[in-house]
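Quick one, T. Sequence first:
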Amino acid sequence: MECRLGYPCAVDIVALLGENSSLPREDVATFLDSVVFNWLIAGTDAHAKNYALLIGVGGGVRLAPLYDVASILPYIDIEKAKASMKIGGEYRLRNIRAYHWRKLAVELKLDPEKTLRRVSDLADQLGDCIPAVRQQMIKEGLKHPIIPRLADAITKRAATSHKMIHAA
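Structure tokens:
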């Protein structure tokens, strides 16, 4: 696995979690979910500095909740978008397919088919929950014009991503 010079990559983060987390399997699964989520929403700022560890009173270490999460979908064409960390050797979001997720799983010492099922499940879940989230935002008085544009773009991206990982 090749990382950008001087920058931690997914393999580095998983190794750090494996060596230091109080619940390494859970934190690695959460980290993988975050990589998938950022691919789905075109969250191109999900670099290593946007992940953190929490150290508890008793010295327990856990992956911190996600922060600084944003989608570029309402703003630019996905054709130009790149992930901050490679997914199976690929940066361009539009190029990532099942092969890349399987390759990433192998690099992370995870089960490739289980990983691919998780990617598919998250794409389905995201597509299913967006309408309810959009309605909740409107109900709470958030009426900015970016909301429907973002909701539509993420819904479309989730469906497209699902097809991409199921294509041969």
